[in-house]
Write a structure and sequence with these properties.
Radius of gyration: 16 Å
Low-confidence stretches: none
Largest sheet: none
Helix content: over 70%
Strand content: under 5%
Number of strands: 0
Number of helices: 3
Order of helices and strands: HHH
Distance between the termini: 11 Å
Length: about 80
């Protein structure tokens, strides 16, 4: 895969992931803000971690789906990084 095509693929995957994650992000942000207002730092940190994990999982799923569509293995994708 040429560099330009690879960068476009990464861009599309990232953009789509952001769009899909937006609603979940808003829910977690409300919960995080509530924890912040109550000064519940354990819950606050947990919500940050949960958002991060949710986003990483969604990114992996979207990458896998995109790579299947173009018949590219994850190994080849990672080598291109």
């Amino acid at each position: 895969m040429q560099t330009e095509a690879f960068m476009k693929l990464r861009s599309v995957i990232t953009e789509h992931t952001f769009k899909l994650f937006e609603k979940r992000k808003q829910v977690l942000m409300k919960q995080r803000l509530a924890a912040f207002k109550k000064q519940n730092w354990e819950l606050y940190a947990a919500k940050i971690n949960e958002a991060s994990q949710n986003y990483m999982q969604l990114t992996a799923m979207e990458m896998e789906f995109a790579l299947q569509q173009i018949d590219m293995s994850q190994e080849n994708y990672m080598v291109a990084l």
